Amino acid sequence: MSERNVWLVVASERIKGKTEGWHWDDFFMRRHEWSPAEFSWGGYEWIRSPLSLKFIREMKRGDIVVAYQAGEGILGLCALSSGGYEEVPGSGDVNTFDLAYEPALRLDKPVLLSQLKNDPQISPLFRQLQGSVFKATEFWEGLKRKIVSVNPHLAEAINLFERKIEKLRQVPSEEKDVWRKMAEERATTYLWRGRTYKRKGEQSAWLRKLYDFRCQICGAQFVTPDGRMVIEVHYLRLLKIIGPVGDHPGNMLVLCPNHHLQIELSEEVRVDWEGKTIRFDGTKRRLRIHPTHAQLAISWIRERKP
Q1: Number of alpha carbons in the 13 Å side-chain half-sphere of residue 68
Q2: Which residues have a Cβ under 8 Å from the Cβ of 306 and sit 6 or more positions away?
Q3: Domain check: are 206 and 167 in the same one?
Q4: Which of 96, 254, 280, 295 is the most exposed place for a label (fewest CB within 10 A)?
C-alpha cells in the first residue's frame, strides 16, 4: 500500500456579516445532511496556487486532512475519499478532491496560528500560508502532539481516528469510483465519445419539483437552514456511456442522499415503472412514481429498444 500522506487544507477567512469564504464548520457540523458528492473541495474558484495544484495531483484516498481555518487555526481532522481529479472532465486541470464524511474529528479548542508558529517542530509548515493545500506528512507527529496539548481529552479520539483512516485506505477502489460517479452526476458537463456536453439542468430541475423535492423511495425531504433542498438526481444509465439521449427524465430518479448512495453501491438496480417498484441490494422496494414520470420513462425505454 502506498504511503499515507497528510495535507493541510486552508479554508478562506469568512468576513463577519458576509457570506464570502468557506468555513470548515460547514463540513464538520453538517456533513451528514449532505450527499457525499457535495464534499468536493477545490475547483477553479478556490485553487490557484501552482504549489497547491501540484499537491492535489499527489492526493490519494485515505490521506489525512488537517482542517485549517484562516484567522482561527486548526479546527479538526478528516480524510480524503478520493485522490485529486479534474473538476471539468477532460480539461487536464487536476484541481478538486473529495472529503470523506467519516472519519472526521472536530476539535473542541482550535490550535491557534500563534501556537503553531512557536513550535519549532512544526513552525516551518506555517511560515508561509499562500495557497490552499500544503503537504504536512513530515509534520504529522508534531501536529498531533500540539493538538493533544490543546485538547488533552481527545488523545484517544485521535488514535481512533487514525485506526479508521487505515480501514478507509483498505476499502476496495470500487467505492472510490462510486463517489466519483456521484460527483459526475452533479457536474454541469460530461464527457461522451471524446466530446464535452452540457447537462440539461432543466430536466432534473423539473423532476425534482414534480416530486416536491422528496425521495422516491422513502419520501424524505431535507431542507437546510438556508432554505436549500437536499435532494439528488440519479441516472440509471450513465451519460458518459449512452450520451445525450440519457439526459431525460425517463433515465432519472429523485433520491435522498442515503438511498442515492445505497443504489450506487448496489450491483444491480431494476425499476418496474408499471409496477412501481425498484430492486436493489437484492430486495424489492416500493417506488413513488408520478404518472407523468412513468409515461415518460416507458416511452423512453421503448424508443431505445432495437
Answers
A1: 24
A2: none
A3: no
A4: 295
pLDDT of residue 59: 93
Torsions phi, psi for 302 (to 5 deg): -60, -35
End-to-end CA distance of the chain: 46
- Provide the grid cell at 110: 482550535
**pLDDT per position as a tens digit, 199-214:** 888 889 899 999 999 9
137 and 20 belong to one structural domain: yes
Cα dihedral: 247, 208, 188, 28 (round 10) = -140
Residues 240 and 138 in one domain: no
At 252, list the grid cell: 432519472
pLDDT of residue 180: 66
Spatial contact of 142 and 125, defined as CB atoms under 8 Å apart = no
CATH number at residue 23: 3.10.590.10
Mean pLDDT of 86-111: 85
Which structural domain, as residue segments, surrounds residue 111? 6-175
19 and 160 housed in the same domain: yes
182 lies in some domain: no
Asked whether the predicted pLDDT for residue 162 surpasses 60, the reply is yes
pLDDT tens readout for residues 21-44: 678 988 898 776 654 445 778 877
Does residue 1 sit within a domain? no
* pLDDT-based confidence at residue 193 (cuts at 50, 70, 90): confident
Residue with cell 456579516: 17
Written as one letter, the residue type at 94 is: V
Q: Tell me if 181 is assigned to some domain.
A: no
Res. 176: pLDDT tops 50 = no
What is the count of structural domains for the chain? Answer: 2
